[in-house]
Each structure stands twice: as C-alpha cells, then as structure tokens.
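Pasting as-is:
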Amino acid sequence: MIRPIFLLSLPRSGSTLLQRLLATHPDIGTTSEPWLLLPLVYALRRSGVYAEYGHHHAVAAINEFAAHLPHGKADIDTALRALACRLYEQATAEGNRYFLDKTPRYSLIVKDLMRIFPDAHFVFLWRNPLAAAASMMQTWRWGRWNLDGFYPDLYTGMAAMIPASKRRDRAIHCLRYEDLVRNPHSELERLFRFLDLTYPPGITEQFGQVDLAGRYGDQPAGGNRERLRRASVDGWIESFSSPLRRRWARRYLAWLGDERLEQLGYRREELLQRLPRRRWGRPYRDLVDISQGELRQALRRRILRRHAPGEKE
C-alpha cells in the first residue's frame, strides 16, 4: 500500500514550491491539493461545520453507529485510512512509493491525521508568519486586507501544528522556508534522507516542470518556470506599512508568544524590529477592510455556535 506524506504549513508559506521539489522524485506522486480528508474527519467533529442536513445530529448518529463496530471508532479510522490510501494509489503512477498530500487546511486536523495514519510521514514547513500573512494579501486580494478569511489557519491551525510537530513518536521533519530558499541543496538532502530516498540530481532545475493541474495547483503565471532565486524572503515588510496592519502584526506575534515562535525558529523582537516605522500606507482603506473582516468573522463564529448548540470539540 502506498504511504502518505502530509505537507503541513500555513497557506502561502512556500508549500507549493516544496511540493514541486519533492515531486521531481520518481517515487513520489502528488496532485495539486486533494482536500479529501477534511470532510471525512469533520464527520465526527461536533463543531466547526454548518450543513443543510444538521451536522450535530449526524455526528451523534455516527457515534451511535461506531458503538456497534467491533473496535468502535478505531474501525472508522481503519476504513478511512484504507479509503484514502486506495485513492492516493489510484492518483499516482505505477511504482510510486509515496503520495504527497499538500492541503494547507489539514493543519486543522493534524492530530486526527497522526492517529489515522500512524505510518505516514509528516513534513512541517515553517515560514515567518508575517511573511505568510503578507503573501495571503498579495496573492488573493492584490495587497488589500483579507486575513479574516485565514483566521482558521493563522490561529486554530497554528495552535494545532506547533505542538504536533514536536511529538517524538512520529515520523516528523521540520524545515523553514527561508532556509530552503537560501540553502536548497542541504535542506533537500536532509528531507530526502528523512524519506529514505536518494537525493535526485538536478532537482533545483527540474522542479518547475512538475505539472500541478487543477484549480489549486498554483501554476506559475504565464507558464514561466519557477526558480528558487525568485522566491522572496523580505518582500513582506512593505505589506505592513499602515499603522493598523502593524498593530495586527504586534498582536498576532504576541498571541503566538516567544516560546512558540522560537520553536519555529524565529524571534519576536527581530520580527518586530523589521516592521516599517512611521509609515501610513492607506489607513482609511485598511480601517474599512479590517472592520468588515472582523464583522464577517464574528458572523461566522455565531453561525457555527448556533448550529452546534451546547457542543464542544
């Protein structure tokens, strides 16, 4: 049976770049972003879902059904694992040993993945979180504020990924985007060694040829081949030129805290010092965008609470 590799990161953290690099190896198959396991895992979660059928009733019914199985919920995990691995195998070429599943919002279910797939490899790709946030704005709203739509990633996902990446009883490998860009060969050699694979020659020239067809494939614009030298490490700074964005950045780094940031390989004071000073950007536009975003986020939370009354994770 094919063995999964789960690539976990914040959106816009360089995960597609790393996915292409890994997919140059003949033993690794992949597709753009499957998202396959999110609804399957959430089928047993009491909160976080609003559906026409009444999700919390479905969870109660599935739990009752699981009670009649020989091994309870463990039998559901076994069935999910077999289903996913069968589909991963069908999505790859004959002879592939691994299927690389790069779905950023798997950060929300990382603990479940580690339980359901005890033999999988887990690769955590960290990036300066402010750089990732800036890239979210640049990629999906041409630089305007849109981070309310990524609160599940920035908060819930990060709070789940960081402790999961420190577990010692799993096949886990962590690397930083900045290190990958600056020292690609040494970082990739370590990663392929972790996967028990030979480091393929010419990987940094061939990875742009990997086709990730599909809506979430993040193809290079105009068909140009990606190059590591084009990857930006410092381009995020200008995205925090307004006082409201700097305020958000300071609050977010404070929420992450020194300990968690150091686990990722960053220092809060250094990131704060790099924020622009006395720059105003477009504060009025940011005020409107951020206010609307906070309202949308409040409405999302209210809807989810309303449709899961009295339920807890």
